[in-house]
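INFO  loader      accepted 1 record
INFO  loader      residues=316
INFO  predictor   begin
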Amino acid sequence: MTMKTAGIHHITAFAGDPQANVDFYAGVLGLRLVKKTINFDAPEIYHLYFGNEGGSPGTIITFFPAPGSRRGQIGGGQVGTTTYVVPQGALPFWEERLRKFGISVMKASRFGEDYLQFADNEGLKLELVEREEGPASQWTFGGVPAEKAIKGFGGVVLYSGNSASTRKVLTDVLGMTEIGEENGFIRFKAEGELGNLIDVPAANVPWGAGGAGTVHHIAWRAEDYEQHLEWNREVSKHGFRTTGIVERQYFKALYFREEGGILFEIATDPPGFATDEPADELGLELKLPDWYEPHREAIEANLLPIEVRVLKEDQQ
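INFO  predictor   done
INFO  writer      dumping tokens
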């Protein structure tokens, strides 16, 4: 029996200025900063997590903001576009809101759905789509009321350097179903309600280059620790070398790079983000894993201060 992921767990990207990153994802998009920690592999850099009220799997975008970092180039071997889903009837609100912040928007259609496409402050490509699927967000911030708020991920467009191989991984390894082909895109569906529709250009995409404004990796959901071990065996069975199980405090992870060049992760739904701070205080304090706690003073001194703030456009 083929294993099946429910869809996207989280997406992790590179950014530059950390305060500008917070201003865009919390201030403009109205997401909650659910965790403020560091890159466990590079403790001089923040690792910031934004999602719904609890940082549920399928809602989480994370960033490594490194001041002064070079701008990347979106291309093959990356997530090309990250899709967010909003409630039915919310796109006009979002078009007006983005324009209020001076953000250029374009309209597009794909597989019978209308999309509002734009980029963040670093050039990361984003889009919004209306769908009934998925629980509504309970979070409200700035000028974004809960009834218009982003629910979480709708999916992604994967830019592959070897499209045929990437598409085979989606079906044969991750257990997705191919459900359509249109205008050079092939669509796949996972079983969850969020982060479940994955589009892949049929043609290979020229290689990109990592840097601010590009995605580092995409993570797929494993429902628990036992299934995570099964995923490690399943991925290895298909000939991919994994990192093995890696502890990330708020989930366990394993990584492998598929033949289209995209770094895939499989991450566990548990334990979640309320393991080291109360649910109503998520993201308020810098959280460090135990092995970095003795170095807190030096780590904090090296990080630029950041705050979640209501932007001036929402104060008028």
